[in-house]
């Protein structure tokens, strides 16, 4: 193949890739900024993926209001206890403690999926409300659906639970672009080839906060 033709072909491939990425990113931005369908009045469980403000607080309030039987707080820091989380959410966690699990295994979204799958099997979860940031929701759902293909998931993004669609405070277009690229790796299965952030010796099956 002549050098000029090879360059034109390479340019066409690059242009097609840029157009495809841009089109997908436009879909992603629209998806994370619109209001999701309301979850059902009651589900088997709720999972809150830690890593941002408001997630655990919203999940605890949902549990206290009777929207699910069980709650998993996935990826919580090792020194954080349930009473502290309850005070932040203004929720009395004492009567709920036996239904709440503090998961300390996950250090990544992929770890969230592994930890949630172990918890769901332990508690017979068939339907689940997922609480995380709106920009993180597509990747979180991709990981969870790969780990739990038979479970029904109902996304409830923090910041959009008040009936207001739009851009979350502190979320830039650059952050959304980075998250979209991570989502592509997860959806394509390529993220499985990256090193795990969780230590091999850690237990994926979390213990109940009340046990």
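^ Assign residues to that structure.
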């Amino acid at each position: 193949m002549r050098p000029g033709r090879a360059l034109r072909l390479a340019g066409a491939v690059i242009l097609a890739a840029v157009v495809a990425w841009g089109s997908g990113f436009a879909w992603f931005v629209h998806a994370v900024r619109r209001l999701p369908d309301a979850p059902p009045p009651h589900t088997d469980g709720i999972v809150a993926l830690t890593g941002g403000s408001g997630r655990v607080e919203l999940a605890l309030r949902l549990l206290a209001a009777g929207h699910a039987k069980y709650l998993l707080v996935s990826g919580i820091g090792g020194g954080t206890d349930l009473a502290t989380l309850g005070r932040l959410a203004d929720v009395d966690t004492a009567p709920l403690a036996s239904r709440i699990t503090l998961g300390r295994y996950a250090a990544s979204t992929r770890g969230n999926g592994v930890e949630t799958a172990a918890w769901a099997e332990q508690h017979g979860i068939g339907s689940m409300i997922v609480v995380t940031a709106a920009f993180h929701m597509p990747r979180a759902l991709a990981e969870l659906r790969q780990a739990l293909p038979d479970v029904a998931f109902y996304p409830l993004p923090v910041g959009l639970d008040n009936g207001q669609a739009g851009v979350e405070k502190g979320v830039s277009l650059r952050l959304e672009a980075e998250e979209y690229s991570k989502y592509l790796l997860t959806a394509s299965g390529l993220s499985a080839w990256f090193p795990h952030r969780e230590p091999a010796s850690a237990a994926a099956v979390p213990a109940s906060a009340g046990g």
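The chain has one domain: 33-193.
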